[in-house]
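Hello support,

Our group uses your service weekly, and this is the first time we've seen a run hang past the timeout. The protein is L-threonylcarbamoyladenylate synthase. I'm not sure whether the cause is the sequence or the server load. Input pasted verbatim:
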Amino acid sequence: MSVVYDCSAEQDRADGLAAAASAVRAGRLVVVPTDTVYGIGADAFSSSAVRALLAAKNRGPDMPVGVLVGSWTTIDGLVLSVPRTARELIEAFWPGDLSIVLPHAPSLAWDLGNSNGTVMLRMPLHPVAIELLRDVGPMAVSSANTSGKPPAATVTEAKDQLGDSVAVYLDGGPSGEPVPSTIVDLSGDSPVVLREGAVPVAAVEEVIGTEVTRPA
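Update from on-call engineer: The timeout came from a worker crash unrelated to the input. Re-ran successfully.
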């Protein structure tokens, strides 16, 4: 049975964050508000939890799940190295609407899908998400919707699609326009924008001082 917590109420928020942290540590799924759309999340290091996340979305491993972090420094233990370009983008846009793809540390025991040795990382600009992430650590998070349906902009939309596959829903109010993050792939020889979202490509280019390959 799923439980929804209203994070606009102080006690409900505290209870909800505690319940969500307990659920994540137990390998269960939670829905959290972010600065883009609502996300369905799980312990990034639990393969069974990530598989449950993909099953809840009716999605296969061909579309790997990204990872949300609660601080800039968290990524140092998750990736092979953090190049200068990544540092510049992190300083400019985190927390915020920019996702960065980098080769992940080979020592990590996780299975986020068919990611070809890379991981997509983002630090969201939302206090509820940040507080949960700083408590439980990196989380595998995808948009809170079933495959083929629009991303959820409210907790009600998320619950209507995901139902009791999720243990805890944290209601942070409407997310506003459901615009996804911009994704920049830094795993190759030059930056590639895989998706232009909330952060304009021109803003990315201004920060790193060079042109990037744009989506077709």
